């Protein structure tokens, strides 16, 4: 059944907990409907995803915008079973990754740009944080485009930032040279179940008019928490042995608990070891 503007409005209302204006008629209704109701998929059918389809999706992903047309992102399609197993082992805290029919790693790539400077005989005068940042953003944009395109044609995806937990080993496994670094993995396959719509912060917190304003943040997060507790409660409370459990376990408690533990303390060192100057 073709998507409708009403369905998009209903899905966005469920996601944001507020009424969102209905879209006017457009040929892109199916794509917008897919984007409105999307969710990450971590359970896949055994059905394989053809190499041609993966290649087409890579092309669509890399058609996305790129800072100054520098094209500082690459996608590694991990097909070799042995390498795939080793990559799965490196993200072993994410057991679901093992069953993903397709595993990709989106990388930032500032190496090519530096090669151009060498080959064309011009100084590289931008050896500072921006070089890393631009490549990371470019990779993120391509990742997002890949996800959107995949979900629009009925595939399921989930990014895997856990590849950065062992960035050095992932980099060695994928033979990433200097100035090339993993941004996120991506698991892709035909979904075993329809992903649920994960609620988002209210737009009054995340969409600003003319200037940044966060005077309502605390109250808005309290009501967002209450909505998530009633509509979409967390199945588990993080670090409950250390921090106990609470019946007020909403999004803010989950996120504050998540980042109360150190994560990827060595990532900066890894990025510097790839040659980047982060000043
Ligand atoms: C850059 C990035 C990295 C992510 N890494 C992981 C990951 O390592 N493991 C995981 O299960 N989900 C990961 N996710 C998925 C997020 O947890 C998910 O997008 C978020 O919970 C919102 O849910 P939704 O995508 O279903 O709307 C990642 C998402 C992004 C954008």
Number of E strands: 4
CATH class of the largest domain: Alpha Beta
The residue ranges in which pLDDT falls below 50 over 5 or more consecutive positions are: none
Radius of gyration: 21 Å
Named once each, the bound ligands are: flavin mononucleotide
Number of continuous helical runs: 12
Termini separation comes to 53 Å
What share of the residues lie within helices?
40-55%
Q: Which fold name corresponds to the CATH topology of the largest domain? A: NADH Oxidase
CATH 4th-level superfamily of the largest domain? NADH Oxidase
| Average pLDDT level | 97
Counting copies of identical and different chains, the oligomeric state is single chain
Second CATH tier, the architecture of the largest domain: 3-Layer(aba) Sandwich
Following the backbone from N to C, one meets helices and strands in this order, namely: HHHEHEHHEHEHHHHH
Structural category is alpha+beta
Proportion of strand residues: 5-15%
Key descriptive features of the protein:
NADH Oxidase, globular, single chain, 3 domains, 4 strands, alpha+beta, binds flavin mononucleotide, four-stranded antiparallel β-sheet, 279 residues, 12 helices
